[in-house]
Design brief:
Keywords: Hydrolase. The protein has about 290 residues and is α/β, with parallel strands linked by helices. The chain has helices at about 45-50, 75-90, 100-115, 140-145, 160-170, 175-185, 200-210, 215-220, 240-250, 270-285, 290, and strands at about 5-10, 15-25, 30-35, 55-60, 95-100, 120-125, 190, 195, 225-230, 255. It is globular and about 55 Å long.
Amino acid sequence: MDILFEEHKIRSHDGTMLSGYDYGGSGDTLILIHYLGGTAKGWHPVIPFFKSHYRLISYDLRGHGKSDQPDHGYSFEDTANDLESVMNHFEINKAHLVGSSYGCMIGLYFTAMRQDRVLSLANIDGAIINDSGEHGLYDETLDEHLTKFEGQLDPDYESVEEYQQVYQEQWLPWNKERADYIAAYEPRMKENGKVGNITTGQTMEKIISEIYYIDFLTWYKEVQSPVLFLPAEKENHFQKSLKFIDSAKKDLPYSETVVIPNTTHLMMFDHGKELAEAVFKFHSKIPVTEKL
C-alpha cells in the first residue's frame, strides 16, 4: 500500500532544517517519533491502522532521513526544541506521542519538560531501562561502551545492492514491511566512494553518549500525562525492563503495560496492527480527568 503524505520543511530553534510529514486523518493528533538510525518511513507499516482514529504527523529526527545533520545539537533539550518546532509548524497545541526506542526517550523528555503540550505518551521498547547505573544494562564506562561499537556505527558497503542484501540477511525476521522500508531507504554516498547509512558514525556516537548516563526514572517523576509501556517480549532485557517499568509507574498518575506476544524491538515492522490497537485501546481507557 502506498502511504500518502505531505512533506514540510521546518526550521528548528537553532536553524536546523527538519523534514516533517503530514499523513492526514482526523481526531486528536498523534505524533510518531522514530528510532535511532531510522527515518519517519519506519512508521509506514502502522499508518493505515492509525489513520482512521487520528491526525498523523511524523518527522525525521535531526541527523536522520531528510533532516539536516549538524555537528552539534544532540542534547535532549535540542530534541525537545525540534519536536516543539514541528508542533508549532503544524499548529498543534497538544498531541499524543508514540516513540520507538530512542524516540521514546525524546518523547519522555518532552513530556516531562513540556507537560502542557502532551496528551499521552506511548513507549515502544524504549526508555524502559537505563544504559548505566545500579540497575542499568551495562557495567562499564562510556568509553568502554563506545569501544564495543568500533567499526559498527557507520559500516561501508560497496553498493546500494550490497547494503540491501546485508539488511535482508541480518535484519530478522525479514518480511515485506522490512523489505519495503529498505527498498525506500536512500543511503548516503561517502567521500570514500562507498555507501553508508544516512546517520553518520559521528552522529550516532554523539547520541549514544547523550543517552548513556541518563536515569530515566528522574524524568518519569516529572510526568503527569498517561503513559503506555510496550516492552518487546523477545528482547534479552525483557525481564529487567518489566522491573524498571514497575519502578517508573510508582510516580505516574496513570499508566499501563501491554505485552504483545512475540514482539521484537522494532515491533511496528511485524506487529503493526496489534501495536496500533494497543495504543488506541489505551487512549480510549484514559480517564476523562487525565485528558483535560
